[in-house]
Amino acid sequence: MRTRRQKILLVTVAAFLIGIFIMVSIRANNIPILRADPRNEELIRSITALEEDIAALEEDRRMLEEQIAAIHDEQARGENNLGQLRQIQENLRLIACQTELKGPGLIITIDDNKEGAEKAKSSSPETFSPENYIVHDKDLLYIVRALAPYAEAMAINNVRLNDSSHIRCAGTVILINYAILAPPYDIKVLGDQDILQQALQAASSYRSLLYNMMPVKTVTAEELVLPGYSGTYAPVFSKLSQNTQPTSMF
Q1: C-alpha dist (Å) from residue 92 to 12, 38, 239, 241, 248
Q2: What is the band of 56 on the pLDDT scale with cuts at 50, 70, 90?
Q3: Mean pLDDT across the chain, nearest whole number?
Q4: Where are any strands of DSSP class E within the chain?
Q5: Sign (positive/negative) of CA torsion 190, 195, 198, 203?
Q6: What is the pTM for the complete model shown?
Q7: Which residues, 6+ apart, have CB-to-CB distance to 130 below 8 Å?
Q8: Kind plus residue range of the DSSP H or E element containing 73
Q9: Banded model confidence at residue 245, pLDDT cuts 50, 70, 90
């Protein structure tokens, strides 16, 4: 019995000594004891807030990408509409004869009969009438009207004609679209050359010029260049009401 008590006492003393040894070792080696640190909690809260900010920025980025895509789509539609408007403008310019045109056609040159006028004046000055030997506005007008149904475009001395063009005399010169022109007059006509020649030869105005011995020359051209119409389109006999929008006559 005594021997057993001695063993228990020895074990107790040994355990006590071992505990003292462990505590001394911990203090000697500065081993930290796990406990809650307020700084760790603050760091966790900061990380959580940053994660929330990153999520918000990601959502903003997604929304901006959608807005950029919408702007690109709108820009593409705008460019398409702009292209259509430009095509419409070009078609309107073509209808209004404002576009330069090239192609085959005829050149009809008409000049005053200076030689015939000199002979008539010298032979019978008392009956001489100079009006019989010059080109009049009606001579050009009638030829233009005869060729218009078969012509794609026309110009006289590089002055482009359109539906509103006027041809009239002003003394010894002729006014075309308010441009003052003097002889010789070159009528350039774009279109099928054979059809234009047939229409010209069938025109009574052309035959009348030949009959009166007026200098008329006709040549074909494989590529004529006609400038665009440069006149105005101001209304002459009418004006728009303040409550009326402009409309086309055609």
Answers
A1: 116, 80, 22, 24, 11
A2: confident
A3: 79
A4: 101-110, 153-156, 159-160, 167-170, 173-176, 179-181, 185-190, 216-226
A5: negative
A6: 0.60
A7: 117, 121
A8: helix 38-95
A9: very low
Would you mind telling me the total number of residues written for the chain in this entry? 250
CA end-to-end span of the chain: 137
CA distance 66 to 72: 10
Question: What Å distances lie between residue 49 and 41, 42, 64, 110, CA to CA?
Answer: 12, 11, 23, 93
As a whole number of angstroms, the distance between CA 161 and CA 229 comes to: 7
pLDDT higher than threshold 80 for residue 123:
yes
Q: In which residue are the tokens 């000594």 written?
A: 17
- CB-based contacts of 103: which residues, under 8 Å, 6+ apart? 152, 190, 191, 223, 224
For 203-224, the pLDDT digits (tens) are 999 999 999 899 999 999 999 9
Of the candidates 107, 133, 92, 110, the residue with the CA atom closest to the CA atom of residue 191: 107
Structure tokens at 105: 């056609």
Q: Which residues, including other chains, have CB under 8 Å from residue 164's CB and lie 6 or more apart?
A: 231, 233
Cis preceding-peptide flag for 246 (omega within 30 of 0):
no
Q: Among candidates 193, 200, 199, 155, which has minimal Cα distance to 176?
A: 155
As a whole number of angstroms, the distance between CA 103 and CA 192 comes to: 9
Residue labelled with tokens 């030689």? 115
